[in-house]
């Protein structure tokens, strides 16, 4: 269930058929007619902020990839050896060369693995929060597997709703209510789940829920930051 819901979520959230299967779609009208749309034309035709980079043909763009050596020297030795100025500059230039497209693709590829790594870590937190529950570690792990499966399912439905809202002209207030409701329902779901599975009172469960939420946010942030770092150095 977890694998299926996570697969559906990542397909719905990040898969763009126009990009992956562009050969099956007709080109935009300006490309079909052989015309090139310039930044100046776009600025005249559409409202908003536009950024254009000017440069002559054959002239390399000057990318700002200056890495400060002082900051690296303050890192722990094992990190400083790996995050050298030369290496960071090379990574920065590679990211700037394609405006981060490769990095984003790598991050999206590695995120499912990162979330799987997060599951056993959160199960350890649950094990520590309920030392007298007489439950095996794998039972705490399954608790989080089911919770993540629920998250993926709910977020998939929310993303589909937001995309259909544009096509069906659903009022913005309705989509805003849906987003707020989903944001509130996710923590409420895990709170109720903790009460039903572990059978403790509201106050004690709320205290443990608060600790679990803090640990989850911290762990998730570290896992995602690590994913970005690994993805950047694997380009």
Annotation keywords:
11 helices, 73% helix, 235 residues, mainly alpha, 2 domains
What do you see in this structure?
By secondary structure, the chain is an all-alpha fold. It has two domains: 35 residues, no CATH class; 133 residues, no CATH class. The protein has eleven helices and no strands. Helix 8 crosses helix 9 and helix 8 packs antiparallel against helix 11. The radius of gyration is 24 Å and the shape is globular. The two termini are 32 Å apart. About 12% of the residues have low confidence.
Give the overall silhouette.
globular
Helix content: over 70%
User: How many distinct domains?
Assistant: 2
- Coarse structural class: mainly alpha
Runs with pLDDT <50, length 5+? 35-62
- Portion in strands: under 5%
């Amino acid at each position: 269930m977890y694998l299926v819901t996570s697969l559906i979520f990542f397909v719905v959230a990040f898969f763009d058929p126009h990009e992956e299967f562009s050969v099956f779609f007709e080109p935009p009208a300006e490309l079909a007619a052989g015309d090139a749309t310039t930044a100046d034309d776009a600025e005249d035709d559409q409202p908003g902020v536009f950024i254009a980079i000017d440069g002559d043909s054959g002239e390399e763009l000057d990318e700002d990839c200056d890495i400060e050596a002082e900051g690296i020297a303050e890192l722990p030795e094992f990190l400083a050896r790996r995050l050298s100025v030369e290496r960071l500059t090379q990574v920065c230039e590679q990211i700037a060369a394609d405006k981060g497209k490769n990095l984003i693709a790598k991050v999206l590829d590695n995120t499912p693995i990162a979330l799987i790594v997060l599951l056993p870590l959160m199960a350890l937190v649950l094990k520590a929060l309920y030392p007298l529950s007489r439950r095996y570690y794998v039972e705490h792990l399954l608790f989080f597997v089911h919770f993540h499966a629920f998250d993926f399912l709910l977020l998939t439905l929310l993303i589909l709703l937001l995309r259909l809202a544009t096509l069906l002209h659903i009022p913005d207030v309705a989509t805003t209510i849906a987003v707020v409701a989903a944001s509130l329902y996710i923590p409420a779901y895990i709170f109720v789940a903790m009460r039903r599975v572990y059978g403790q009172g509201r106050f004690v469960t709320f205290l443990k829920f608060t600790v679990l939420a803090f640990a989850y946010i911290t762990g998730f942030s570290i896992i995602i930051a690590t994913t970005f770092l690994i993805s950047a150095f694997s380009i």
